[in-house]
Structures are given as C-alpha cells and as structure tokens.
Amino acid sequence: MEETKRKGFKKESFMQGVMTLMISQVLIKLLGLVYTLYLTNREGFGDKGNAIYAAGYQIYALLLTISSIGVPNAISKIISEKVAVGDHKGANRVFKVAFVTFAIVGLVGTLLLFFGAHAIANYWLQIPEAEMTLVALSPAIFFVATSSVMRGYFNGRKSLKTTARAQTLEQIFKTVLTIVIVEIVAIMTTTSTKLMAAGANLATTLATFLSFSYLVLYYKSRRKEIGEEVKQTVNYKFEKVSTIVKKVLMVSIPMTISSVLSSINKNVDAFTVKRILSTYLPAEIAIEKYGILSGKVDTLIGLPLSVNIAFATALVPAIAEAKAKKDTTTATKRTSFSLLVSMLIGLPCTIGMCVFAEPILKLLYPNASNGATLLQVAAFTIIFSVLNQTINGALQGFGKVMVPATALGIGVVTKLILNLILLRIPAINVYGASIGSVACHLVAFIIAFLVLKKNVKLSLNWNNFVIKPIISTAIMAICSYAIYIVLGGIISTKLATIIAILAAVIIYALAIIALKVFTKEEIKMLPYGIKIYNILEKMGIY
User: Fold this and answer.
1) Please, are residues 207 and 136 in contact by the beta-carbon 8 Å criterion?
2) Which of 166, 407, 459, 502 would bridge with 444, disulfide CB 3.0–4.6 Å?
3) At 395, which helix (H) or strand (E)?
4) In sequence order, what are the residues at sequence separation of 6 or more whose Cβ sits closer than 8 angstroms to the Cβ of residue 57?
C-alpha cells in the first residue's frame, strides 16, 4: 500500500496505462505525420527524398532493434514479477545491471553504423545518397538503447505515464527539429535532396538525446522514493551480475528477434523494390515508387498500429504480474478484452483506408498524391498487424516469448519469396511488395493466434468478436462514403474528406453501442466504465 501512495510511482490500473499510452501514441503519430507531410511536400525533397531518408532509416532501425527494441518489454516483465512479490531491491539491481549492459551494446551499434555507413549505402542499399543519413543517425542507437532500459523499468512499476511523456517529448523535438534543420540545409545548399535527408535524420538523433536526458533527470528526482522501497524489500534473493544479464537476455533476445524480423520485413522492401524494379524501369522511377511505398503508404498504415501498441506494451507487465500472483483469471480477461478492442481498432481502419485511400492522399500530400491503389492493397496488413501486436504482448507476458519471433519469421520468409517473384512481373511491379506484406502478417497472425488459443482459455464470443464488428464497419463505410460523395458536389474535396472521416468515427461508435459489442463487464473495464454503463443503462441500450 505504501507504494500506491507515493507521488513518484503511483500505480496505474491496466486500462489507465493503456489509455495513457494510447493518447501518447496518437499524439506521436500525428506529430510524425506533420513532419512527414512537410518533407513529402517540401520542394526538393518529395518521393526521392523519402527514398533516401527511409532507406537510411530502415538500416538504423534494424541496428536499433538488435541493440534495444525488445528491451523495454523484457525489463518490464522481469521488474513487474519482482515488484509483485515485494522484491524492490532485486528490481532495482536488475535495472542497474541492464542499464550498463545495454549502454555497451548501444555503443557498439553506434560505432558499427558510423564506420559502416559508406559500405551499407553503396553496396547493401545501392543508394549512395543514403550514406550521410546513416552517419547522422548513428549516435541515436546509444541513446535509444539506454532509454529503452529506463522505459522498461518504469513500465514494470506500472508508471507508464513516464514512458508516454518521454516518447511524446521525443516526437515533439523530432518534429520541430526536422523542419528547422531541413529548412536551414535547404537554404545553405540550394535544396540538396541528399543533405536535406541527412538533416532530417540528424533531427532524430538530437530528439533521442533529449528524450534520454528527460528520463535520466526523472529517475534522479525519484531516487529517494526508490531508496525507501529498497529498504522495505521482502523476498530478496541475491543474484550475480552474470545471472541477471543472462536472465535479461533470455527474455529480451526472443522479443528482440521479433522486432528484428519486423525491421527485416521493412528492409526486404529496401533491398528488393528499387533493385528489382530497376531491371525494367528507369532508376529514377524505381526510386520514386519505393519512396511512395516507404514514405507515404507505410506511414499511413502505421497510424492504427501506433494506437494499438498500447495494449501490447501494457499487457506484458500486467500478465507477468498476474502470473507471479497466480491470478490466471485476471490475465485471461485482460487478454480477451484487449483482443476485442484491437479488432475494433484494426477492422475499421483497414476498410476506411481502402475506401478513402485516394481522398486521404490528396488531402495529406497535395503535391505528391500518387499511390492510392498501393495504399488500398497495403491496408489489409492493418487488421492482422494490430491483432498480432496484442497477441504477441499476451504471449510474452505468459512466457511464450519465442512464439512471436517464430511466427513472424515464417511470415518474413513468405514476404521475401513473394517480393522476389511478384516484383519481377511488370504488370504487378511495386504492388508485389504490398501483397507480400499482407501475406507476411496474415501468416504470422494465424500461427500466433493458434498458439495463444491452445495455451489460454480465451473468453471470446464469435458473434461479438467478428460478426458485429464487421456489420459495424460495413455501416460505417457505406454511410461515410455516401456523405463524402454528397458533400463532394457541394464543398471542396478536402473538406468533404475531413467531414466524412469524422462522420465515420461517430457512425462506427454508435454502431458498436447499438449492436452491444461490449458486455456489461467489458464496459466497466474501460476508464470511467461505470459512468459510461450507467448512462447507457439510462438510455435503455443496456
């Protein structure tokens, strides 16, 4: 009880943590969209600049994944298990050992990218212009690797607000610095696309440093509370440094493998799209097609995933804690509820992106709006990716850490094969990459879901989980598109698009309520759920 009263580490409920991260992720993606729109529409940057920027960024993301991406969930799982049984001293010791370990790993990653930039850009990517972007990004690997340990520590203590603030601050800095630095570079170099792309990635490095600084200062400000908790430790078992490192790696490596495979999935496009398309298209057009895929389509497809990632992040420590307390009922309920919400997020986003692909691109990228059909094909990755995120978080929390990696590995091999076959067909060309992505995530979803279902007794009602969401989505799509068509003949197309999308959100929410997709118990799991249920009850809906 002491712990819940402290201002520094006040515990959040499961759904409070989810909502905090969800709001943070929405804000992060909106800010990301701001600088993406700026870059794509900026004279001298466009699709070619996106290709250079994205190619360098994907290599950075791969090294970053190897050095740190699986770490927050791994650390949060171990910390939450120790905190659940009162071993605060052990939790603090795990944090300190992990911090030093991944600081070394991050430094190695930074040096590899810095000194290997020339070879990677010229021989791996075959985009020489990407060399400077890799150099500019290299220091960020160290800052993110160390920050990831700190985020995992706070997540494990159910202080997800700290992670949310750090990530939001990083994106604010990144957005502002990207625009400022690119503008300065453009003025000084008379719009050199290569240097503008490098400047955009330098902004990423500076933003990661500032976010890391915030986490360090926050941790220092809470040292007194941490010290008090350590004094009250029970169930402490001394572990050698080597034992702790081994334990962290045993959990983080399988999680990191999943993230590495996800990054490799993107790098499959970076290595194959431009290379294969150039065999029958001019190099300039091949680069632009990759730029459309990586700069616009992938950005838009990533928006729903950023909202849902909150469940995957919150599920790992929540389920690990429940398991440590042998509370399987809570773990099962949280998993089932999270899967339902993920379906309700992913399905309308998939169909909405298909229906409004062209209007959305014209709204967001007026100077470079190509790619509507590519976006429509790629949109089908959303539903499977969203469900995969939640399933993977649950599996990791339950200790099945290798399953997500295995499932995604099979999916990535599927994508690579399809890319190599379909991209060579001129009639399909770049669409082959999107088809490969859909197949990748579908295969991974099927494998992971079957394993989860085998190990966890999910309380999912087929009618509520599949049928009603499909009906709600169909109502949303038909009504919102009708609104778009009607308004398109009266007001500007851009304004009609915005109104139609807002109407889609409202119509979908009303359809979910009218069809009673959520049970009484599930509504009460939501933030302010009891108040929401009382209102719906008074309205005669429940």
Assistant:
1) no
2) 407
3) helix 380-397
4) 133, 137, 201, 204
